[in-house]
Amino acid sequence: MDDLLERFDHLKDGVSRLKSYRDILVFQASEADTSEKEFKYSADLHQKCTEIFKTWLEDSLTKNVDSIAQLATTGLRHVLGDQELSFHIRQDPQKNRLAMRFVVEEDGNEGDPLASFGGGAAVVISLVLRLAVMARMGMGNLLLLDESMAALWNGYVPSCAEFMRQLSEQTGINILMVTHNPEFISNAHVAYEGHKDGSLKLRRVKSGGLGDGP
User: Fold this and answer.
1) What are the E-state strand segments in the chain?
2) Sorting pLDDT into bands at 50, 70 and 90, what band is 211?
3) Inter-residue contact 106 to 86 (CB < 8 Å)
C-alpha cells in the first residue's frame, strides 16, 4: 500500500508538471498567435503604404513628364515654326517600373525624334530635356554647349536663339555656348570673342541684361 501511495504521489507530481508545461505552451502559442497577427498587420500596412507611395510617385512622374513634354512641344513649334510638331513621352509599365519612350507627332504620324524629323527637332528636344532635368533636380545652373546647334537649319537659327534666351531667363540656368553663328551671339546676354594666336584671348563684344557679369 505504501509503495502504491508513493507511486500515486509521483504520478500526481508528473500530472502537475505536465499541466504546468501545458499552461506554458498555451501561453507561448497565444503569444505566437498575437505576434503573427501583428506581423500580418504590419505586412498589410507596409503593402498598402507601398501601393500609396507607388501611386503618388507615378502621378508625380506623370505630371512632370507631361509638363516637360508640353515645354518641348512649345519649343518645337517656336523654333520649327513651319511644322506642327508635338512631343510626347510614352510611359509603358514594365513589371515594377515605368519605361519611357520619346515620340514626335505630326498630323497623326508618330516617329522617333532622332530618325524621323531631322536633326533640328532632336536638337530642340535635347536642349529642353537637359534644361528641364537640371531645373527640376537642382543640378546647378550652368549648361555647356559646344557648337551643339550645328544640325539646325539656318532658317531656324533666329527663332532657336530667341527660344534659348527665353528658356535661360525662365529656368534661371545660364547657357555657356561656343558658336560662330551671329544670331546666337546677338541673343546672348553677354558675349565674348576669342582669337587663337598661340594663346586664346577673349574680348567682350556684348554686355547687357541677365547674366551681365565679368
Assistant:
1) 86-94, 97-106, 109-111, 142-146, 174-178, 190-196, 200-207
2) very low
3) yes
